[in-house]
Design a protein that fits this description.
about 250 residues
C-alpha cells in the first residue's frame, strides 16, 4: 500500500510529452461527443426536452423581455416560459426560471439583439476567451490553454452556455490586479454582484486582507449598478432599458 501511495503521490506517469498530448486527445473526444449530441437533436431541442445551451436560454429570454421594456417580467414564470418556448419552437415543456438579481440583466441585455444561436455562440466564445486569457496570465505556459480545454467542467459550461467562464474571469482577473491595480480589481470584483454568493464573500476577504482601495472601488461600482433599478410599474423603466415594440 505504501508503494502505491508513493506512486500516486510522485505521479511518475505525468511527463512533459503526456501533458502535451493527452489534453488534445480529450478535446478531440469532447468535440466528437458534442457533434453526436447535436446530430441527435430535433431542431434545437434534445431528447430530454432541453434546448441547445440549456442554461443560456434564460439569459436570452431575460434580454428579450428587457429590450421589450418589461425587465420585471423575468421573475414571472409564465412570461419567461412563453419567450423560451417561442425561441425553441414550442417543442419543450421544460421551464428555466430566472434566478439572478436584476443587475445581471445589465450584462446580458444585448443578447436578444441577435437570434438565439448567434447570441449563444457569441456569449460562449467571448466568455471562454476571457476565461482562458486570465488563466494564461496566471499560468503563462503553452500547455495552460490545452489543459483548461481538457477539463470536463469547461465543456459542461460551454455546451450549456453557463456564466461560469464570466465569473471565473472576473474573480481571477480581480486577483491578478489586486496588488498593482486595486481600483481595476475592485471594478472586476464589483461585477460579481451578479452572483450574490460571490458578491458577499469577496468584500469579506477584502476587509480581512485590508485591501481598502480595492474595497472602495468595489463598493462604488456595486452602488452604481444597484442604482439601475427596475420598476414594476408600466410607466417607469430602468434608465438603461429602452422601450421598443415587439
Amino acid at each position: 500500500m505504501a508503494s502505491v501511495l508513493k506512486w500516486l503521490r510522485d505521479a511518475p506517469w505525468i511527463t512533459a510529452d503526456r501533458i502535451s498530448i493527452y489534453p488534445k486527445i480529450f478535446v478531440a473526444a469532447y468535440l466528437l461527443s458534442y457533434l453526436l449530441y447535436l446530430s441527435s437533436m430535433h431542431e434545437m431541442v434534445d431528447r430530454a426536452g432541453d434546448p441547445i445551451g440549456a442554461d443560456f436560454v434564460t439569459s436570452w429570454a431575460g434580454s428579450h423581455l428587457a429590450l421589450l421594456g418589461h425587465p420585471e417580467q423575468v421573475y414571472n414564470t409564465a412570461a419567461i416560459q412563453a419567450v423560451e418556448q417561442a425561441m425553441v419552437g414550442g417543442n419543450t415543456q421544460n421551464v428555466w426560471r430566472w434566478y439572478y438579481p436584476p443587475t445581471y440583466l445589465l450584462i446580458v441585455l444585448p443578447l436578444a439583439l441577435v437570434p438565439y444561436l448567434w447570441a449563444l455562440a457569441a456569449w460562449s466564445l467571448a466568455t471562454l476567451g476571457a476565461y482562458l486569457s486570465v488563466l494564461r496570465k496566471i499560468a503563462p505556459w503553452k500547455e495552460t490553454v490545452w489543459l483548461a480545454l481538457a477539463f470536463p467542467g469547461t465543456w459542461i459550461n460551454l455546451v450549456n452556455g453557463q456564466n461560469g467562464f464570466l465569473t471565473a474571469a472576473l474573480l481571477g482577473g480581480g486577483l491578478l490586479y489586486l496588488e498593482e491595480q486595486p481600483v481595476l480589481a475592485g471594478f472586476l470584483f464589483g461585477l460579481l454582484v451578479i452572483k450574490p454568493q460571490l458578491g458577499i464573500l469577496v468584500p469579506l476577504v477584502l476587509v480581512v486582507t485590508r485591501q481598502w482601495r480595492c474595497l472602495l472601488a468595489d463598493a462604488v461600482h456595486r452602488l452604481g449598478l444597484l442604482r439601475c433599478r427596475f420598476s414594476h410599474s408600466g410607466r417607469r423603466r430602468g434608465a438603461l432599458f429602452s422601450t421598443r415594440s415587439g
